[in-house]
Design goal:
Two copies of one chain form a homodimer. Chain A has about 230 residues and is α+β, with helices and mostly antiparallel strands. Chain A has two domains: about 150 residues, Sandwich (Jelly Rolls), CATH 2.60.120.10; about 80 residues, Arc Repressor Mutant, subunit A (Orthogonal Bundle), CATH 1.10.10.10. Chain A is built from eight helices and eleven strands. In chain A, a hairpin with a 2-residue loop joins strand 10 and strand 11. The longest helix of chain A has 27 residues. The first copy, chain A, binds a DNA duplex (30 and 30 nucleotides) through helix 7.
Chain lengths: ~230, ~230
DNA sequence: CGATTAATTGATACTTCTCAAATCCTGTGG
DNA sequence: CCACAGGATTTGAGAAGTATCAATTAATCG
């Protein structure tokens, strides 16, 4: 983690995507003064499961994964974060240790906000509080969906749906590929299956012309059929 | 849902277990005035997945399950609620439709608090806000655990762990049985497996003297061994 | 450009699901 | 309070779906 080129909250375009979207002028300058700009290299761990964070990170530009270590240290990816997302607030607000590790999936610029500062904003700005609650409650809904999928869907269905979720979350690059580079092992860890199963299923999806593959670049060719394979209805 | 014998928030013992534990005298009398006491019979549905609740329920005495309908209407139990728990706040705060259905597992007395009243307390009492955030964030952590278990553990392990969680959550009756009556199908729906698998595994656990069974009454006889079977470490 | 990690493919084993049939139990109405 | 109907539970057999292990090839990073 290094110092990074300083950002000024007042002028931050990413802010509009974040929970800080509705802060006043004074609050913003206060924020700018108390935060620090940091940089994480691809692969670098931002938070360690079980640790006690001293504040939260707001992603300015980058991508990260939240994961837990399960059986025999096997990685389980719970969710992702991108521009504007807040890292570590769950632990700070629940008063518990961090329940996940967070690692950068790409070179990531973020701002660090100390715990005390976060609580200050919460106590002085009910709108911000509501934003945080909204965020947490939305994530709870997403977690419920994931739980149901893991419990009831087949590996094939889960992988198909996951590809669509990744496309939705990270968008596409210039060539139409899902704009995130994940190893087959990481894909497996999201879906809750073995790496080999992911490989076999991706080959099958490709054969069926649902997707195309160039190394780690995956392009959804037929979202409608893929959704059908994944039994995705919403 | 019927009217129920009225409760007065100021004198409610259950309140101390709830998010309302730190309200002031005035706030409590205000609460008492605006809430309604309701009664749900065992099996009755308290909230329907997809609906828009007009307020939240606080369980005064009873038990409920949160579940989603997954593949082909199959029920997936996400979590449980008991005395002092708040129902429906996730939907109200995220501004989304209810993501789960909630049904009473026993005859349940609860208090209904209209949406506007909830927001009023949130805006006027930062401590209450923090309590709610704490709740939501804690649940997020629990959801993460469940996700990891579903993705990585075997059915056997999940069932063993689930029995321990149920014992922890609902405690024991006079005979030492887990104090909740669930059908085999409901157990299956928590663990994410087929009803027949639950039955076979329960028989095996009984054979191995980890538990004893009298109909729907299950008693954990050897929690240590059961935890070992479930690969439970915490 | 070599060393290490990632991806692929094949063969095999096992867990878990599904379907079917029989018995048991629970909640209900008389 | 008892009998009954319908749902819940149990057991068995067979079929899928996935995991695991091993060996090879490809790709990535310093």
């Amino acid at each position: 983690m290094n110092e990074s080129a300083p950002h000024i909250c007042e002028m931050c375009n990413t802010r509009k995507l974040s929970a800080f979207s509705e802060l006043g002028k004074e609050e913003l300058s206060d924020l700018s003064e108390h935060k620090a700009c940091v940089f994480f290299k691809k692969g670098q761990i931002i938070m360690h499961e079980g640790s006690r964070p001293t504040g939260v990170y707001c992603i300015h530009h980058g991508k990260a994964k939240f994961y837990k270590l399960g059986q025999e240290g096997k990685e389980q990816i719970i969710r992702f974060a991108k521009d504007g997302d807040l890292l570590g607030y769950r632990s700070i607000l629940s008063g518990e240790a961090v329940s996940v590790s967070i690692a950068a999936l790409e070179d990531t610029h973020a701002c660090f906000l100390p715990k005390a500062m976060l609580f200050e904003v919460i106590e002085n700005n009910p709108k911000f509080s509501l934003n945080i609650m909204k965020m947490a409650c939305h994530e709870l809904g997403e977690a419920g969906k994931l739980i149901t999928n893991l419990a009831q869907k087949s590996v094939t269905e889960r992988l198909a749906e996951m590809l669509l979720i990744l496309k939705e979350t990270f968008g596409e690059d210039a060539d139409g590929n899902i704009d995130i580079s994940l190893t087959r092992e990481e894909l497996a860890s999201m879906v809750g299956t073995a790496t080999e199963s992911v490989i076999r299923l991706l080959s099958k999806f490709k054969e069926d012309e649902l997707i195309s593959i160039k190394g780690r670049k995956i392009k959804v060719e037929n979202p409608v059929k893929l959704a059908r394979v994944g039994n995705v209805f919403d």
